């Protein structure tokens, strides 16, 4: 009986010690990781872009897509909003030059997305002297 009482007292003492005593109280690691992580934001071009693409034959090909732009800093969204017509025109121009096979394939869609991102960044750097768009995403992609 003498053996179980000290064991119980030890268990009770461990349970009463706050868990923060065992935790790592180094708060600098939490602030360092949050400061190192960028604060991304997304800007959706509205309304959706509807345009034609090159097809073989007499019929027209239509493409409707929704474009989201990933920005490194939320403060850049005002600049992107100001340049939204330029961005839309650049995307429509790139898509208008694409053949039907590229528009309708998954690999071609990725090539178009990369070309749109490059063209948008090229124009925005010329206008604002900074790279505003980190990533360009097609969140809706419908073709006919």
TrEMBL record:
Listed GO CC annotations: bacterial-type flagellum basal body; plasma membrane
Signal peptide: 1-23
A Gene Ontology BP annotation from the UniProt entry: bacterial-type flagellum-dependent swarming motility
UniProt superkingdom: Bacteria
Predominant location: membrane
Membrane topology term: Single-pass membrane protein
Pfam family, one: FliL
Subcellular location: Cell inner membrane; Cell membrane
Alphabetical keyword list: Cell inner membrane, Cell membrane, Cell projection, Chemotaxis, Cilium, Flagellar rotation, Flagellum, Membrane, Signal, Transmembrane, Transmembrane helix
Described function: Controls the rotational direction of flagella during chemotaxis.
Family under the similarity heading: Belongs to the FliL family.
Name used for this protein in its record: Flagellar protein FliL
């Amino acid at each position: 009986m003498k053996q179980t009482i000290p064991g119980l007292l030890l268990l009770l003492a461990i349970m009463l010690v706050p868990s923060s005593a065992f935790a790592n109280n180094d708060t600098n690691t939490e602030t360092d990781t949050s400061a190192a992580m960028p604060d991304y934001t997304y800007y959706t071009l509205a309304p959706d872009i509807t345009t034609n693409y090159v097809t073989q034959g007499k019929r027209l090909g239509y493409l409707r897509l929704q474009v989201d732009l990933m920005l490194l800093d939320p403060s850049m969204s005002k600049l992107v909003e100001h340049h939204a017509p330029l961005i839309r025109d650049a995307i429509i121009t790139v898509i208008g030059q694409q053949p039907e096979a590229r528009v309708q394939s998954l690999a071609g869609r990725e090539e178009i997305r990369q070309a749109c991102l490059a063209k948008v960044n090229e124009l925005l750097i010329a206008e604002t002297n900074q790279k505003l768009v980190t990533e360009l995403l097609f969140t809706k992609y419908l073709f006919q």
